[in-house]
Amino acid sequence: WTAMRDFEGQLRFGEEASKAFLVHIGLEASRENINFVSSAWNHQQYDVAEDLYETLEYLKPKYRLGIISNAMPSRRQHELIEHDLIQYFDPIVISGEMGIMKPDADIYHAALELADVKGSEAAFIDDWPKALEGAEAVGVRKLYLLDPERKWDDDRFPRLHRLLDLK
Predict the structure, then answer these.
(1) Using CA atoms, how far apart are residues 154 and 144, in angstroms rounded to an integer?
(2) Average pLDDT over residues 42-70
(3) Contact predicate 143/124, CB 8 Å
(4) Dist. CA 68–CA 98, nearest whole Å
(5) 20 to 30 A from 46, CA-CA: which of 53, 76, 84, 99?
(6) C-beta neighbour count of 16 within 10 angstroms
(7) In degrees rounded to 5, what are phi and psi of residue 116?
């Protein structure tokens, strides 16, 4: 897992993890079963947030948009391409490619360096308070908690109920 830095590495890991999973649940680790489990793991499907495209179309002309994501390399290979999102973001920092996950300060430093901005010039939106704490620790001051269902009992950060609240 820790050596997985690209999609090919994820595919190799997925195959080994699929074998282990099948053995663990008592199913045959046949090529067909391994391929099925590995494919499902490597091509996870995600829905896009309500009003995402409208929000991005509003923000893109005004701001440079980037992503910091605790995700596997397939996020860049599949989700962002399949949902036509890659065009909106630069930089895109994927934890699985870097071996660093939010809220580790290094992932925020890497994103700020790639974007060539200071923390004080950046804003950060996340649906996890710990990730916001990590961004705050490296100097990001505009922090927003995306929490449509009030999942978090945390009032330290301005709460967004939907992405369009950014307008």
Answers:
(1) 11
(2) 88
(3) yes
(4) 11
(5) 99
(6) 12
(7) 60, 50
